[in-house]
Amino acid sequence: SAVISQKPSRDICQRGTSLTIQCQVDSQVTMMFWYRQQPGQSLTLIATANQGSEATYESGFVIDKFPISRPNLTFSTLTVSNMSPEDSSIYLCSVTSTDNYGYTFGSGTRLTVV
Amino acid sequence: RKEVEQDPGPFNVPEGATVAFNCTYSNSASQSFFWYRQDCRKEPKLLMSVYSSGNEDGRFTAQLNRASQYISLLIRDSKLSDSATYLCVVSSGGSNYKLTFGKGTLLTVNP
Q: In chain A, which residues have their Cβ closer than 8 Å to the Cβ of B101?
């Protein structure tokens, strides 16, 4: 299965600032997914990042708050903009496995907004 | 009704015990089903996919009942290293391959 390098692994940020999270995959993948896992909760899909087109956002998530870039088939970034303490969460990127069955996750970015 | 519902847990069992997790899903059009394991402060990792005919991988057995929209995971002879949160995951399939996660069930295996 694909190997994903996600960074930063953690950060503590001031409210009102923005943080960009990067995911690098060791192979070309069609779709990359960005998830959020709030404390004590399960994972919620933020958006699907497609190469060459705008990301597709899930209900409750908007591009102005979570802009996504997907410049090629091995890389994507998620920016958490104008952060507030409610954005404190773990953010994970994910790709489908090479056989399109099952998913691989990056190691996650643990964000704390103070 | 939540899209994917799991036993709320937590489960505390002794080593060697058999433990079963249950999960139901609301979207009858769901196409793929998985159990993931998430260790504390780690990312989820695929434990096993779930097939209509049921499937087994060592001490782990997964079953799917499409008519009842029910998925189960059975762990036999549990080990200390099985302690983790187990996530029931359902995919809508199609070109989007969107995953919907249950809230997870925490398992602690005690010596």
A: 42-44
Number of A:B CB contacts under 8 A? 46
What pLDDT is stored for residue A44 in this prediction?
94
Strand, helix or coil for residue A86: helix
How far does the CA of residue B51 sit from the closest CA of chain A (Å)?
Answer: 12
Contact list in B for residue A44 (CB cut-off 8 A) is 101
Residue with structure tokens 């949160």?
B85
Residue B91's nearest CA partner among A101, A114, A80 is A101
β-pairing, B55-57 vs B4-6, is: unpaired
Q: Give A62-86 pLDDT, tens digit per residue.
A: 999 999 999 999 999 999 999 999 9
* Contact between chains at A101 and B96 (C-beta distance less than 8 A): no
**One-character DSSP codes across B85-100:** EEEEEEE--TTT--EE
